[in-house]
TrEMBL record:
The keyword Transferase applies. Pfam families: Aminotran_3 (PF00202). Keywords: Aminotransferase, Pyridoxal phosphate, Transferase. The keyword Transferase applies. This is (S)-3-amino-2-methylpropionate transaminase. Residues 9-19 have a biased composition (Low complexity). It comes from Quadrisphaera granulorum. Belongs to the class-III pyridoxal-phosphate-dependent aminotransferase family. Its cofactor is pyridoxal 5'-phosphate. It is an enzyme of class 2 (transferase). Its EC number is 2.6.1.19, 2.6.1.22. GO terms for biological process: gamma-aminobutyric acid metabolic process.
């Protein structure tokens, strides 16, 4: 281990494509977390990396496989974040590794807009086949989720000749200028970064835990539609953009009926329904795409995170007539659909089918939900347990004493969520928080996580919850 910044002596430059020892799928701590080598790297980092870039857990990773991260101190951590829903197929998925290695040797870049290559076409063929679009579909590839969302808006505006974009409370769509405008939460995503793009309007979301008791999805949709019609005007709306299960905003799953009612309103009013499946896509929620659960057929779907096993790739897939409305050359980018990222996607999509990751996500749901509900029964500060597939969360709230028993309130307990997360980190389990109020712990394991490893992570979580929250 070196503490100099000389790249030749840095551990990061260690090469080697030879056979590697497989990483045993167990949690194992050999130092405190973070350990001394991670702490030394953190010192180097603080000297040169902008403070604007944060990290949940300053543990520097050396290798990863399956659902285990190995840090520079030799600790093995259980990854319940999957790099924010990216490595759905597990770290170092062999199909992804093999295809990437081959592609790197063949060529790494030509720019599809200059001289095209088959891998891009093959990824679009797969996306068109998988996405729940009605009728013929086409796709276009980009690099990041934000870019995919920006392009979906460009396409929708061009196709409809309208300007207005409708988004929802608690939405997260990215960090570029247009997508910051679409994202709801000010801190940390927007504060001080304006002025933001115009013609973005926010409607109320269906949030069963916080909505009036018994409010149906149809009623929540009517509430949103009333806002859209009164404040935007139905004939002004180019598109309604929504995450079928909200991600950063708190893993909020709208009440059944909400998404179909919004999609029907769009169809009736000539607006496009855009499902932002950047976080929910690729088997994460127990369907290939989350909007399949209610049979919703979006006009456009945005995708990124889980598509390429960790390489940066994003896309928009949608109705062919809409995707083709844009003039030639109107969409693109230097790196969009990079051949190495496309090769990774082909490996990841193959793994998703061969390993039945849709089924795997449902198995994770079954295993985890039972444990989370059992914990909720012991700790009323877990106000809500929710999510689908391997996209699950607990919302932590303050409690009040009522007739000698503790009961949940709606008041967020961000400190409680942070304490649970910190205890998990110290014990070697990577957990993430999210939510408009910062009080949601979210769980996004690789879908391939082994049952014994998941159980071990849940034991750690249980201990953390029982000590952080009052009984
Ligand atoms: C992460 C995310 C984005 C932004 O993706 P980046 O690749 O970080 O730009 C957009 N939408 C949703 C729903 C996301 O979860």
């Amino acid at each position: 281990m070196t503490t100099t910044a000389d790249p030749r002596s840095s551990t990061a430059s260690t090469s080697g494509t030879g056979a590697r020892e497989p990483i045993e799928q167990v949690r194992q701590l050999v130092t405190e977390v973070p350990g001394p080598r991670s702490k030394a790297l953190q010192e180097r980092r603080l000297a040169v990396v902008s403070k604007g870039i944060g990290s949940t857990l300053p543990v520097f990773v050396e290798r990863a496989e399956g659902a285990v991260l190995v840090d520079v101190d030799g600790n093995q951590l259980i990854d319940l974040g999957a790099g924010i829903a990216v490595v759905n197929v597990g770290h170092a998925q062999p199909r992804v590794v093999a295809r990437v290695q081959d592609q790197v040797q063949d060529f790494t870049h030509t720019c599809f807009m200059v001289t095209p290559y088959e891998e891009y076409v093959a990824v679009c063929e797969a996306l068109v086949r998988l996405a729940p679009i009605e009728g013929p579909a086409k796709a276009a590839l980009f690099n990041t989720g934000s870019e995919a969302v920006e392009n979906a808006v460009k396409i929708a505006r061009h196709a409809t000749g309208r300007d207005a974009v409708v988004v929802f409370d608690h939405a997260y769509h990215g960090r570029t200028n247009l997508t910051m405008a679409m994202t709801a939460k000010a801190m940390p995503y927007k504060k001080g970064f304006g002025p933001f793009a115009g013609e973005v309007y926010r409607a109320p979301m269906s949030y069963p835990f916080r909505d009036p008791e018994g409010m149906t999805g149809e009623q929540a949709a009517a509430r949103a539609i009333a806002v859209i019609e009164a404040q935007v005007g139905a004939d002004q709306v180019a598109c309604v953009v929504i995450e079928p299960v909200q991600g950063e905003g708190g893993f909020i799953e709208p009440a059944p009926g909400f998404l179909p009612a919004l999609a029907a309103w769009c169809r009736k009013n000539g607006a496009l329904f855009v499902a932002d499946e950047v976080q929910t896509g690729f088997a994460r929620t127990g369907d290939v795409f989350a909007c399949e659960r209610e049979g919703v057929r979006p006009d456009l779907v945005t995708l990124a995170k889980g598509v390429a096993g960790g390489l940066p790739l994003a896309g928009v897939v949608g109705r062919a007539d809409v995707m083709d409305a844009v003039h030639s050359g109107g969409l693109g980018g230097t790196y969009g659909g990079n051949p190495v990222a496309c090769a990774a996607a082909l490996g990841a999509l193959e793994a998703m089918a061969d390993l039945d990751l849709v089924g795997a996500a449902r198995t994770v749901e079954e295993r985890m939900l039972a444990r989370l509900h059992a914990l909720q029964a012991q700790r009323p500060g877990i106000g809500d347990v929710r999510g689908r597939g391997a996209m699950l969360a607990i919302e932590v709230v303050k409690t009040i004493e009522d007739d000698g028993v503790q009961r949940a309130t709606l008041e967020p307990d961000a400190a409680g969520a942070a304490a649970i997360s910190a205890a998990c980190h110290a014990a070697g389990v990577v957990t993430l928080t999210c939510g408009t109020y910062g009080n949601v712990l979210r769980f996004l394991p690789p879908l391939t996580i082994e049952p014994a490893l998941l159980d071990d992570a849940l034991d750690v979580l249980e201990t953390a919850v029982l000590s952080a929250l009052a009984g």
